[in-house]
Amino acid sequence: CALQLVGEMAPQEVRKMRARRGGAQALEYHTILGQTGVVGVLDTGIDPRATLVFANCNDCHYTVNTLCTKVFIQSCKNFKATFNGKSVTNMVEVYKTEDLTVDFNTKCGTLQFDMSRNLDLKFNTRENFHDIVWAGCHSLKVAFVDTGDSIHTGFDLMTEEYADLVEERSQFKLHYLNGKLVNEKVIRLVNGFPSTKRESDAYDAKQEIAMKTLAQEWGIAIPRRKKE
């Protein structure tokens, strides 16, 4: 695994970062570590195959204009990022970060935020947004410049709706549904695949209709499902 650093990183921190990355040894990393009070612009110098990592940076503002594979922000405080350059996988992940402001001026497909506080995300267009999967985040704000849409959510607010939440594990999916920003609790299907109750119910209903249609064609009687 190629690891390019700006700043020094202890071996144990490298191991932690790779563990969060799922142990993928083949990935390359361009890591900006332990910076304080830096206002920087990244135009060149990053391999497009690399994951761009910001770790343990405080009071910084980085503008990213260059291409990278993925972005990961970990253990930063009072950190601002402006993304103008494309991410190949359209993925941004944030872990244990406080007071984060991000301006998205490029398409981001999957955003994952875990165990973080005071997140302020702004998208220049709704078209650049797909969804956010988050867990254990306190005060997550999302706004769109072109539509004026916005939402303020977080773990404390969701405990008012769900009594069985576990901060480290309970996940929510924030996305547009019927033209409105909504939070849906993520559930795990029998095969382990993440979904929401609404998506699972819709899939089950579609499957049931398909089975009934097939049964009618074959002259088979299917007993009614018991209501839970």
List keywords for this structure.
seven-stranded mixed beta sheet; 228 residues; alpha/beta; 17 strands; 16% helix
Polypeptide structure, described:
The protein is of the alpha/beta class and 228 residues long. 23% of the residues are buried. The strands form 2 sheets. The protein has a 10-stranded mixed beta sheet. 16% of the residues lie in helices and 45% in strands.
Give a short synopsis of this structure.
This protein has 228 residues and is an alpha/beta fold. It contains three helices and 17 strands.
- Helix proportion: 10-25%
Poorly predicted residue ranges:
none
Number of helices: 3
Spatial separation of the terminal alpha carbons: 49 Å
The topology string of helices and strands comes to: EHEEEEEEEEEEEEEHEEEH
What profile does the largest beta sheet have? 10 strands, mixed
Rg, rounded, reads 21 Å
Tell me what portion of residues adopts beta-strand conformation.
35-45%
Mean pLDDT reading: 82
User: How many runs of DSSP E, i.e. beta strands?
Assistant: 17
Shape: globular
State the secondary-structure class: alpha/beta
Record the strand order, biggest sheet: 1-2-4-6-8-10-12-15-16-17
Topology (SSEs and partners):
Elements: E1 3-6, H1 11-20, E2 28-33, E3 39-42, E4 50-55, E5 58-64, E6 70-74, E7 77-83, E8 91-95, E9 98-104, E10 108-114, E11 117-123, E12 129-135, E13 138-144, E14 150-153, H2 155-158, E15 171-177, E16 180-188, E17 194-196, H3 197-218
Parallel strand pairs: 1-2, 2-4, 3-5, 4-6, 5-7, 6-8, 7-9, 8-10, 9-11, 10-12, 11-13
Antiparallel strand pairs: 12-15, 13-14, 15-16, 16-17
